[in-house]
Amino acid sequence: MHKALILNGPNLNLLGTRQPEVYGSTTLEMVENLCVSHGSSIGIDVSCFQSNHEGALIDAIHAAKGDQDGIVLNAGAYTHTSIALMDAIASVELPMIEVHMSNIHAREDFRHVSYISKVAVGQICGFGARGYVMALDGLAAHLNCGSTA
Ligand code: CA2
């Protein structure tokens, strides 16, 4: 059984409470429950963590080294700004799938840039909460096959 960390960044604790036209009506708790149950159906033991603080996210990435087999990361707005998060992912050498609820490429120009993508196996965006399930499937394929084929 593989282990994966679902890591959510700033403001994602507000999912389902505001801006449903952009982020849907699914709460973070529902997203996390979905990930745990989908993970168990595909042989991944899922743990979840959310923080609004960059340093806490970096600490969680460091702690994943040696404990987890991969990470699903929605870094929120830090996606577009944080070289520190990018460096943390690179330093732990764990496969990471980047997720966004919204299609960041169809939004403001500043959301088109992702530092996270530079160290990701791949990026999933625009599918709402289902993107996390897709990311877990992608991580499982990557862990089981060792390639994107
Ligand atoms: O689409 C995504 O998942 C984002 O990572 C969400 C971030 C945004 O800064 C990224 O560009 C794209 C923002 C998360 C804010 O989440 C909220 C949820 C509900 C209500 C208000 C904010």
Automatic annotation (TrEMBL):
<dbReference type="InterPro" id="IPR001874">
    <property type="entry name" value="DHquinase_II"/>
</dbReference>
<dbReference type="GO" id="GO:0003855">
    <property type="term" value="F:3-dehydroquinate dehydratase activity"/>
</dbReference>
<feature type="binding site">
    <location>
        <begin position="101"/>
        <end position="102"/>
    </location>
    <ligand>
        <name>substrate</name>
    </ligand>
</feature>
<keyword id="KW-0028">Amino-acid biosynthesis</keyword>
<comment type="function">
    <text>Catalyzes a trans-dehydration via an enolate intermediate.</text>
</comment>
<dbReference type="GO" id="GO:0009073">
    <property type="term" value="P:aromatic amino acid family biosynthetic process"/>
</dbReference>
<dbReference type="GO" id="GO:0019631">
    <property type="term" value="P:quinate catabolic process"/>
</dbReference>
<feature type="active site" description="Proton donor">
    <location>
        <position position="100"/>
    </location>
</feature>
<protein>
    <recommendedName>
        <fullName>3-dehydroquinate dehydratase</fullName>
        <ecNumber>4.2.1.10</ecNumber>
    </recommendedName>
</protein>
<feature type="site" description="Transition state stabilizer">
    <location>
        <position position="18"/>
    </location>
</feature>
<feature type="binding site">
    <location>
        <position position="80"/>
    </location>
    <ligand>
        <name>substrate</name>
    </ligand>
</feature>
<comment type="pathway">
    <text>Metabolic intermediate biosynthesis; chorismate biosynthesis; chorismate from D-erythrose 4-phosphate and phosphoenolpyruvate: step 3/7.</text>
</comment>
<feature type="binding site">
    <location>
        <position position="111"/>
    </location>
    <ligand>
        <name>substrate</name>
    </ligand>
</feature>
<feature type="binding site">
    <location>
        <position position="87"/>
    </location>
    <ligand>
        <name>substrate</name>
    </ligand>
</feature>
<keyword id="KW-0456">Lyase</keyword>
<comment type="similarity">
    <text>Belongs to the type-II 3-dehydroquinase family.</text>
</comment>
<dbReference type="InterPro" id="IPR018509">
    <property type="entry name" value="DHquinase_II_CS"/>
</dbReference>
<dbReference type="InterPro" id="IPR036441">
    <property type="entry name" value="DHquinase_II_sf"/>
</dbReference>
<dbReference type="GO" id="GO:0008652">
    <property type="term" value="P:amino acid biosynthetic process"/>
</dbReference>
<feature type="binding site">
    <location>
        <position position="74"/>
    </location>
    <ligand>
        <name>substrate</name>
    </ligand>
</feature>
<feature type="active site" description="Proton acceptor">
    <location>
        <position position="23"/>
    </location>
</feature>
<dbReference type="GO" id="GO:0009423">
    <property type="term" value="P:chorismate biosynthetic process"/>
</dbReference>
<comment type="subunit">
    <text>Homododecamer.</text>
</comment>
<dbReference type="Pfam" id="PF01220">
    <property type="entry name" value="DHquinase_II"/>
</dbReference>
<keyword id="KW-0057">Aromatic amino acid biosynthesis</keyword>
